[in-house]
Amino acid sequence: MTDAKWWLVCYDVHDPARLRRAAKLLEGAGQRMQESVFRCWMTPSQMHQLRWELTEILQSVDEVLLIPLCARCVAGMQTTFSAQNDPDWPEAPPPHRIL
Hints:
Blueprint: E1 5-12, H1 16-29, E2 31-34, E3 37-42, H2 44-57, E4 63-68, H3 71-75, H4 82-85
Helix pairs in contact: 1-2
């Protein structure tokens, strides 16, 4: 059994170049929910790795917030326009299938 869970990652980056680098890193780690908000399915070690990689990109004027989400929190998530954005937060994302 995995110890992965959903994490909500929010950032505020003051430099356009650092912003692009941080967004690219997060696009590889999760799914964009809003301009500067991502949801990521990660284990604690993956979260620490992502956090370390972000510290390599960002400076002290930038901020990142990583929020672990329990199953109860995930079940209560709501967004607007859900049919367009498919924001359902399953208990776990579907596994990848190798064809």
